[in-house]
Amino acid sequence: MDIPALLTSAGMNIGISVGMFTLYSILRKQPLNVKVYFGQRIAQGRTRNENLCFERFAPSASWILKAWQATEEDIFASGGIDAVVFLRIVVFSIRIFAIATILCTFLVLPLNYFGEGMVGIEDPTAMDLLTIGNVREGSRWLWAHCFTLYVISACACTLLYFEYENVARMRTEQVQRFPTRPSNFTVVVRGIPWSSIESYSESVGKFFSNYYASSYISHQIVYRFGAVQQLMEDAEKMYKVMTTVPVMATIPDKQCCEPNAERCGLCGAGAGSNSFKKIDGGSTFANRNVNDELREKECEAALVFFRSRFDALVVSQTIQSADPMLWVTELAPEPLDVFWQNLCVPYNLLWIRKISVFIASIVFSVLFLLPTTFVQGLTKIQYLQNAFPFLRRVSDRSYINLITGYLPSLVLTVFLTIVPPLMMLFSTLEGRVSRSTRKRSACVKVLIFMFWNVYFSNILSGSWIERMGKLTVTSPKDLATLLAELIPRQASFFMTYVMTSGWSGLTFELLQPVPLVGNWLFKCVLMKEDDFVRPMTFSFHTEVTRVLLFGLLGFTFCILAPLILPFLLVYFCFAFLVYRNQIMNVYYVKYQTDGSYWTLAHNATIFSLILTQVVAGILFGMKKSSTASTCTIPLIICTALFNVFCKNRFLPLF
Amino acid sequence: MDIPALLTSAGMNIGISVGMFTLYSILRKQPLNVKVYFGQRIAQGRTRNENLCFERFAPSASWILKAWQATEEDIFASGGIDAVVFLRIVVFSIRIFAIATILCTFLVLPLNYFGEGMVGIEDPTAMDLLTIGNVREGSRWLWAHCFTLYVISACACTLLYFEYENVARMRTEQVQRFPTRPSNFTVVVRGIPWSSIESYSESVGKFFSNYYASSYISHQIVYRFGAVQQLMEDAEKMYKVMTTVPVMATIPDKQCCEPNAERCGLCGAGAGSNSFKKIDGGSTFANRNVNDELREKECEAALVFFRSRFDALVVSQTIQSADPMLWVTELAPEPLDVFWQNLCVPYNLLWIRKISVFIASIVFSVLFLLPTTFVQGLTKIQYLQNAFPFLRRVSDRSYINLITGYLPSLVLTVFLTIVPPLMMLFSTLEGRVSRSTRKRSACVKVLIFMFWNVYFSNILSGSWIERMGKLTVTSPKDLATLLAELIPRQASFFMTYVMTSGWSGLTFELLQPVPLVGNWLFKCVLMKEDDFVRPMTFSFHTEVTRVLLFGLLGFTFCILAPLILPFLLVYFCFAFLVYRNQIMNVYYVKYQTDGSYWTLAHNATIFSLILTQVVAGILFGMKKSSTASTCTIPLIICTALFNVFCKNRFLPLF
Q1: With pLDDT > 70 as the criterion, what percentage of chain B qualifies?
Q2: Is residue B343 a part of any domain in this protein?
Q3: Residues A362, A304: one domain?
Q4: pLDDT digits 0-9 by tens, A321-334
Q5: Same structural domain for residues B89 and B163?
Q6: Is residue B579 one of the residues assigned to a domain?
Q7: Residues of B in Cβ contact (< 8 Å) with A352
Q8: Same domain, B40 and B16
Q9: Phi first, then psi: what are they for B190, rounded to 5°?
Q10: Both A136 and A217 in a single domain?
């Protein structure tokens, strides 16, 4: 790919982005779309009064201003701690890549361009002249690259440390902020042993009143076939009928982050579990033997309520039985966070499910090499002309720039849309009992998938095509050398990827096309009164991953092919504004992980840094600058030590 | 190496072993050596009355009978739970290798011998004819190998499961057996924050009486420069003078496994810490400001005593501070188990020490390739003749069988003797606060070292010499193929290693040459009254490792070169008798890990099994028996699943 292809891609993406932004600024003012763009405000009972005037149809940038002016307290009030942490990740990226952009554009880029390393080589593409590949062997200017690497690593570690400290502080403050969270008083018990003489409920009651007599209050067994959900929904409907107020509006304005404990009876007092019985008594089961009916539906899982947070914590961290697969305890999730259907999965099966999911993930990753190779085939279409002569006609056409520049990253982005839902399904199958841990687990899976399948496999398959299958890796050292040689060559593809997946992705995030069109169809075509759009939770597993993937791209390319950095910086700045807007207006907070996404971001950043340093070290070696190469070794060691220190210092709090 | 060399080695080792056993049966009856061979009895205050008669100088096998007749209760009484677990590992090895020997000798060995795979090859050595290398390609008899592999794996997993269950039960019984262990009521606190206004002791007192008012009793700060040890030794001397009874005799007969709590004031009541102050008051410090003196010597570590085991456990598992590197708590070791000098290591430095030790271990492992290659050079001396012509003279001599057969494994065994002390030093530097965890950590290190440096590097360096440096590994698949090809070829070397390190090693263990000669020099030459021999603790880190290494050899060679199995079985049977004798007579129990060596044995066995299966699968593939090769895949998966199941089922108890 060369400059015209890159420019085509940039043009396409800038055009799409500007168009979408303009469209958004108009659409958001239409009353029809208020549920699409202001889901959270609706949920909080706040409404907007818009009059039919000219301003409604004029594009404006007022939302950008509002997003910019919002304080961290506003974000916390609208999106909870996870949203704040996510925006801290974006801010961290902006800071570090601003530093990197300045350093690399004014120091590394000119050195690369005037490096004269490709003087002897025929027909170097313009893009290659800007990479480290153009620095000639043994050049003394490689010291500048090494210095830049040191500065960037030092800044990244410093910023990481302060952010980690900040997030850890916020996380501990959460405990003080919500002293009466029901989850802090409740323990989930799984693997209750089966007994022929008594029901699970009786077993649980006996066990805990025997061993924790002073702190145990009561318990609630979980029922199969969604009995609990059914009861909850019934109660909710009754409540709705009686008050004729939308359910979402019952959540108080300022406590939106704190789930409403009274709604499902997990408040730690006995009242919750009694209320279930009352409803049972008055239902159609009344004349039958309700106990027998219920006993059949009992799962081997229960929620147990304790008098104090300390008691619940102690119970949750103690092994209760000589067989550690019986009476397994852990702190319960918040009421709205519980993923009921997984509570009924027998605890014995969990490890098998986890292993199956692990294997399935690997198989899926391997299968995904096919679309990746296809995408790289599009980028390197000129290399395929010998094998497939019919492609020669294509490459003469005027739209070749579109095919090699814009299409590949579009195809990849489209293929990648199936990944997050699939990983979410995997995480569900793993048997997580809370929605928040399920989402976090999906996030880990998507992250590893993206790092492997977008980054490494694109680099490797791209070079495999360039060399027409003659890619033999004969030792780990070869692999590292190969990476060092290939990463700079893939820079232009990743630049287009940043634009397509990053810039255009942001506009899609902003515009919410699926709910928008769905809402429009529902209201204007089908003429239904029900809402198509329900308030959504923020999909951290896709967005955190995307930001971290761009971080990886930024770090690894920063000194090898610095031209990618301005594109990334633009992405991060827009991401900051767009996500702030979305978090404050669109998404609804149902559950939180108390900032545990930061650990992922930290690990991903450290991984990116060390990869960068290793690749740079090898490249310096290949350029015969052995001192610069040796100088990266202490840097790698220091980064690894810093990581271990942070693990010791902060991780126990997460 | 061929049959004569192997026979030379066998002859040497059998001769040495029989001689040593005879010598031992005489030496153990001499009153001079009673402290060498009956250290434990002396420690328990029991003595033997031997008269000067003919029987004292006649070899006898009575000790074998006694060792055989001892029950598990006897072992438990003499050696504690760790000794029982160690002997369970030996018994497990005897059982599984008895099955393997029967199957392989009567099924696999004849098939290998009549396999006709080496018909076309010139001059196959007799040893090679007995390995799987002699089965011709595509032979249907490979099914028998596959079947044997299945039977051995199934038996190993079944036996492992029951042993794990057994050990886990013993471990939980320990808690009931010793309800008043001081360690269960005591918590070690490290990383006490420094304060300019109060001493560490005051900080600890304030902290725990503030947060754990109901359960906290008192605390004892740890002092630098061995102040505590000094005080203890003073107290011990005083006690000795006053009672004129040997200190060791104060340990009651049946409670030898239960450290005597009163001796160092960790009994959970305040008395312990008060007694220190009394001694201080009466010492030479009396006229100075004792408090200032002591405060300077305070470490940032303390022992805190609680009212109940539950309270201590809860405190030990709770994060005490928002900075997890301050107020770090863990359950204290038993009084005799505490490694005092490491308690004074600042907690902040521990992670750096651990990383340094990790790096040092890797460096040492790499350096150890030199002696390994030298050893393999001795075995393959005929391959080196081209490069070093002067060796040709050597290979014509009559002692060539000694050089290729006996010498290599002797040299390796001698080099390996420096490994356990070095790893123990590494574990000390890591900053473990108890002797038992230090020894267990050393055991892990030695185990990994042995598996890597004795097993893999011998196999690889051996083949490197055979091919005169033309050993290129070009992919992970190549490495596996290489292993599958090379492992059978190293069988004869490992047979001699089993004899030298195993058989002769056992006789050395029995004879205890160093204490024996030392004791003799001290008593008869230097005419000293003091004892040279002090009661020793059993060195689990060398012996567990040796048994597990032989297990690895047994599993990986069982279907490839089954001739090694009888040698191993003889070793394990003798090991059973010798170790029982030594545990009951020689070693003294100072501290225990409550059976945590079993987890090591389990992991090592699973590793050996899976390695065996992988290598066998590849070999079947190389022999063009693709069905047999495919059949090993479910076996590998089942073994891995079994391991995960055991981890879930039993590991939380350890």
Answers
A1: 81
A2: no
A3: no
A4: 888 889 999 999 99
A5: yes
A6: yes
A7: 641
A8: yes
A9: -125, 165
A10: no
pLDDT tens for B532-546 read 667 788 889 999 999
Distance from CA of B164 to the nearest CA of A (A): 12
Range scoring the smallest mean pLDDT among B16-20, B45-49, B406-410: B45-49
Same domain, yes or no, for B369 and B473?
yes
CB contact under 8 A, B641 and A352: yes
In the predicted structure, residue A640 carries a pLDDT above the cut 90: yes
Give me the helix-helix angle, B62-69 and B3-27, nearest 10°. 90
- Cα B278–Cα B283–Cα B284 angle in degrees, nearest 5: 150
Name the residue facing B475 among A313, A474, A652 (closest C-beta): A474
Identity of the amino acid at B138: G
| Closest CA in chain B for residue A175 | B322
Other Cβ atoms closer than 10 A to B131 = 27
| pLDDT, mean of residues B266-271 | 37
Q: Is residue A638 part of a domain?
A: yes
* Complete DSSP assignment for A166-229: HHHHHHHHHHHH-TT-GGGGEEEEE-PPP-SSS-HHHHHHHHHHHHSTTTEEEEEEEESTTHHH
pLDDT score, position B422:
93
For chain B positions 623-652, those within 8 Å of chain A (CB to CB) are 641, 644-645, 648-652
The residue among B555, B645, B654 whose CA lies nearest residue B598 is B654
Strand bridging mode A328-331 / A216-223: unpaired
Same-domain check for residues A267 and A315: yes
**Residue that is last in its domain, among A279, A298, A333:** A333
Q: Look up residue B434 and give its two tokens.
A: 């108890």
- The residue segments making up the domain with residue B550 are 3-177+352-653
DSSP letter string over A421-460? HHHHHHHHHTT-SBHHHHHHHHHHHHHHHHIIIIIIHHHH
Angle between helices A476-486 and A457-466 (to 10 degrees): 80
Same domain for A310 and A376, yes or no, is no
Domain boundary among B302, B333, B364: B333
Question: Domain for residue A569, yes or no?
Answer: yes
- Determine the average pLDDT of the residues in A510-520: 85
Share of chain A above pLDDT 90, in %: 29
Based on the structure, what is the number of domains in chain A?
A: 2
Task: Compute CA B466 distance to the chain's CA centroid, rounded to the nearest angstrom.
Answer: 33
The mean pLDDT of A603-627, rounded to a whole number, is: 88
**Which residues in A lie closer than 8 A to residue B653 (C-beta atoms)?**
319, 322, 324
Based on the fold, state whether residues B487 and B565 are members of the same structural domain.
yes
**Residue of A317, A351, A653 lying closest to B317 (CB–CB):** A317
The count of other CB atoms within 10 Å of the CB of residue B486 is 18
B634 interaction partners in chain A (CB closer than 8 Å): none
**Residue B242 burial (CB < 10 Å; 0-12/13-18/19+)?**
exposed
Q: Is residue B179 scored above 70 in pLDDT?
A: yes
